[in-house]
Each structure stands twice: as structure tokens, then as C-alpha cells.
Amino acid sequence: MTNLYSKIIGSGSYLPEKILTNHDLAKIVDTSHDWIFERTGIEQRHIASKNESSVDMAYKASLKAMSMAQLSSNDIDMIIVATSTPERKFPSTAVLLQNSLKVEQGFAFDINAACTGFIYALDVADKYVRAKVAKNILVVGSEKMSSLLDWKDRNTCVLFGDGAGAVILSESTAPGVLSTNIGSNGSYKDLLTVNIDPEFIEMKGNDVFKIAVKTMGKLAVSTLEKNNITIDQVDWLIPHQANSRIINAIAKKISLPSEKVILTVNKHGNTSAASIPLAFDDAYHNGSLKKGNLIMLEAFGAGFTWGSVLLKF
Ligand SMILES: CC(C)(COP(=O)(O)OP(=O)(O)OC[C@H]1O[C@@H](n2cnc3c(N)ncnc32)[C@H](O)[C@@H]1OP(=O)(O)O)[C@@H](O)C(=O)NCCC(=O)NCCS
Predict the structure, then answer these.
(1) Confidence (pTM)
(2) How confident is the model over 138-166, as pLDDT tens digits?
(3) Which residue's CA lies nearest to atom 12 of ligand 1?
(4) What is the 3-state secondary structure (H, E, C) of 44-107?
(5) Does ligand 1 lie within 6 Å of residue 39's CB atom?
(6) What are phi and psi of 77, to 5 degrees?
């Protein structure tokens, strides 16, 4: 019997037009370009307009992913949107996206695993493909993080940005997703959170930083071990883009040269569930990712949640 895999056959992304630089932020809160850049690696982030929602951004990214995959609305049989910033409480962002894309078959739902959302969504999508429930799944990460920011809080408002990334995960007999690994621990619920009222991100940055480095380092090692591969076989690491110091610490821990790490946090800031598909699409379009590459995706987020995906592109 031939093995059945899920494989990424299309990718697309969207970033809002407005760019907010560190210098712009220094005019709003007591901060500086140097502080933000040295502590996080961030130079700028994109900010959605007032009327632009996570559905609008997801729609634009999805059209590009579908075009690369050469699929039309009739071909999509499942949609998952990873988001913590839905346009409405319900219907879900995924159902609203289904409507925008004029997809009239299949089913759609959201996943909220904060910054790990896209990895959770890929984990679920891979299982639906291999269970032969769906053939072509649109998997999207879309976030309007700016809507959750207290623009008076310099601890958080400098870190995040808006955007969307999408992939098409399709049934394939050639190797694609090789393994997925997700986890969570709710006892950390108060270290990084958005309460209902006021609806702002609150974070104990230093604690989050330390646990993120430790967890993602361990996860990268266990992903390699589980797949019986060595680090030199990996072509690219695409980590969640929150902080370049977290990313560098993980690369060091697994002895991966920095030339093999995709870094977009400088341009995008932390776009939560959108960060990995945005980085993936950026790296694909600048020619870094090539067909046949072995790629490790890895994320960490509020909850805490974490996860990795190893895939052949
Ligand atoms: C947020 C983060 C950049 C802060 O860096 P840090 O080195 O831990 O800094 P600290 O929180 O210890 O703060 C150090 C000082 O800088 C100040 N500071 C915080 N934000 C600042 C800003 N934007 N500009 C200038 N100073 C700032 C703090 O008030 C503090 O001052 P104090 O010592 O007088 O109290 C860092 O903790 C981080 O990246 N954490 C992980 C965040 C993250 O990735 N979250 C998402 C995970 S999915």
C-alpha cells in the first residue's frame, strides 16, 4: 500500500499597507529604536486599517495560495483559520472566509492556540488528509494583533504586528508532512493573556522569554530524535517570529547555523498565528525555500502552547 501524505502545494501572504517603524513608536511611547531592535530584533511591523479584519487579510493571502496551487473555490474541501483576533465572536473567521472565497462545499472552523495556532492547524489538517476526509485544505493564520494592544504600554505595543499567511495542504503520495508534535500547559495562563475587559495583551515578558527558549529548544531536539534525523539534514528552520534572541538561542541549542534560519521578525514583528505562514511565504518568494527541502516549523505561545512540524516541501 502506498503511503498517503499531506503536502504544501501553495502558499500566499498578505501584509497591510501601513508600516509602523520603531521610530514611529518612539513618538507614541517612551521607547527607542535601539531598545526595541536590541531586545527583539524588530525594526518595523505592518498595521491593518480600521476597517480591515482578520477575514479580509486571510482572504487576500488565501487567493494567492490557491493561485499557486492552481486550485479554485470548487476544489477546497476544508478551511482552518488559526487566529486569536477573529472578526466576530461567531460565525468563525474560517466560515466568513469560506463565504468570501465563495467556497460552497466542505466545512470550516477556527483554531485558537495563540502564537502556536498555525502549527495546531497544520497538525489537524494533516490528520484529516491522511484519514481521507479532505483532499485540499486551506490552512490560514491571520491576525489583527494591533486590535489587542494598549498603545500606552511600551512593554507590549512594540512587539506585535498584523498580517496573514495561507497554505494549501493537499493529499499526496510523495512525502510532505513527516511529523507533527503539539503540546500545552494551562498552568501558565497568566504569564501571557488577553482578558475580556479590558481586551489588552498582558505579559510577563521575561518569564515568557525564558520558558519559550527552554521549551522550543527541547521541542526542536525531540523533533529531530523522533524522526531519526540529524540537524545537518535540515535545510531550514522556520520558527515563530516573536523575538530574534529567542530564535538565536534555539538555533544555538540545536547547533543550526544562522544561515539556515528564516528570520522575518525584523520586518513583521510578532504576528502570532500568522508569523510562520508569513515567514514561509516570504522565504519561498525570495528563493530561499526550494522544492524538496526538509523544513522544521516550530512555535510557542500563550497557554502555554507549543508545537513543531517537520515537512518535505
Ligand atoms: C518583552 C521583552 C522584549 C523585554 O525584554 P527584557 O530584556 O526581558 O526586558 P524586561 O522586561 O526585563 O525590562 C527591562 C526594562 O526595560 C523596560 N522596557 C520595557 N519595554 C520597553 C520599551 N519598549 N522601551 C524601552 N524600555 C522598555 C522595562 O520597563 C524595564 O525597565 P526597568 O528595569 O526600569 O523596570 C522580552 O522579555 C521578550 O521578548 N519576551 C518574550 C516576549 C514574547 O516573545 N512573547 C510572545 C511569545 S509567543
Answers:
(1) 0.97
(2) 999 999 999 999 999 999 999 999 999 99
(3) 206
(4) EEEECCCCCCHHHHHHHHHHHHHHHHCCCHHHCCEEEEECCCCCCCCCCHHHHHHHHCCCCCCE
(5) yes
(6) -110, 5
Tell me, yes or no, if 248 is annotated catalytic.
no
Distance CA 272, CA 305 (A): 12
**Beta carbons within 8 Å of 82's beta carbon, 6+ residues apart:** 110, 111, 112, 113, 117, 118, 120, 121, 139, 140, 141, 142, 273
Question: Which residue would you say has higher pLDDT here, 157 or 196?
Answer: 157
pLDDT above 70: residue 290: yes
Q: What mean pLDDT do residues 48-73 have? A: 98
Which residue's CA lies nearest to atom 36 of ligand 1? 205
Out of 115, 136, 243, 268, the active site residue is: 115
For ligand 1, whether the C-beta of 40 sits within 6 Å is yes
Cβ neighbors of 87 (< 8 A, separation 6 or more) are: 53, 54, 55, 93, 96
Domains annotated for the chain, with CATH where assigned, are 5-172 (3.40.47.10), 177-312 (3.40.47.10)
Tell me if 113 CB under 6 Å of ligand 1: no
| Closest-CA residue to 91 (of 123, 121, 55) | 55
pLDDT above 70: residue 1: no
Share of the chain above pLDDT 90, in %: 98
Residue 139 exposure: Cα atoms within 13 Å on the Cβ side: 33
Average pLDDT rounded to a whole number, residues 112-118:
98
- Distance of CA 180 to CAs 15, 117, 183, Å? 27, 13, 10
